[in-house]
Known about the structure:
By secondary structure, this protein is of the alpha+beta class. Helix content is 25%, strand content 24%. The strands form five sheets. Strands 1-11-6-13-5-4-2-3 form an eight-stranded antiparallel β-sheet, with helices on one face. The longest helix is centred in the middle third of the chain and has 16 residues, at 246-261. Bound molecules: succinic acid (SIN) and cobalt (II) ion (CO).
Amino acid sequence: MFQLNFTEFTQEEFLRDYWQKKPVLIRQGFKNFEDPISADELAGIACEEQVQSRLIQKTEGKWTAEFGPFESYEHLGENDWSLVIQALDNWSEEAAQMIEPFRFIPHWRLDDLMASFATPNGSVGPHIDLYDTFICQGSGNRRWRVGNNGEHKQFAAHSALLHVESFDPIIDAELSAGDILYIPPGFPHEGVSLNNSMSFSIGFRTNSSVSLFSAFADYMIDNEEGTELIEDPHRKTTKHSGAIDRDDYDLIKQQLLNVLDNDELFRKFTGSYLTQAKHELDLIPNEEPYTDDEIAEILSQTQLKRLGGLRAFYFTETVDDGVCYINGEQVLFNAEIAPAIKLMCDNVCVETDMLAPWCGNQSFIKFIQQQLALGYWYFAE
Ligand code: SIN
Ligand code: CO
């Protein structure tokens, strides 16, 4: 179990003073930190077809990037390269545990857990992210330089590498196992490995208006929503047929605002959209369904775990009416089991005592049965 050890500030003070405002180095943010996964295991995961991985090298001043899956690493030297794996939380239960201490930030904001292994002088190069990142140093050491936000010229150091021109550091520090560097979006940064080292980044994201509008438009097309036309039965004559007057401009704008104002529609879209998995899930549907009695029995003895990377959220306004969102879909359930569903959305691992009051509830058993069959939740070994 990983636990955050903020000594200079509380989590509330961190959000007030640093979150989305300025970078900060949290020395020993994880005390007695040990890598949840080895470099060899990481290299093995990057050989899998479904995993998104990159190998980044700098040879004689020239940057290159290759995309996985990789078959071998034998052609690589001892220095100057790093292997980066996205969404490690989907592939390693042990590594996914590193996300848990960050639940003081709501997880609709979570992007993924990224891991990297780097050899001496290995780096992904100086760059700017659009995400808030907590870079947690694992074994080995890296030197991190972080510049101030503001105008920075970006350029393609390689077709797959957007770099930033040199910057003056406001943080320049060598990180050791357990140190955490928080970097908000827009601050240029570069980490260079000093020896063979591991690093784990917990990233938080938001969406641009254009991606939200585009996804909302797709959602409306798929669900045949928003098909109403403007109606203007009270139209008056105009002397300027070439003009779009103020009333008409408002009418057109209002047409779109009405769609956004439809909370039932917009919630259904938002819940579905925010629970879509960004990376492939390691789904193993449970083919031999448990009987109701078996589920009740196992639930009373075993933790219930959520599949790594699966997103499950609810809106505070509608969960008590029996609505939640799981993996891109709206899911309806008997409103009386809402407290148990909240537990399953708030915790990736639900302890037996938390679910004990629900083990005899038929609606809850049916809900669990469906989720187990889909491979979205599973019982701990
Ligand atoms: C890395 O771990 O090498 C890169 C992390 C980052 O810069 O966001
Ligand atoms: Co970065």
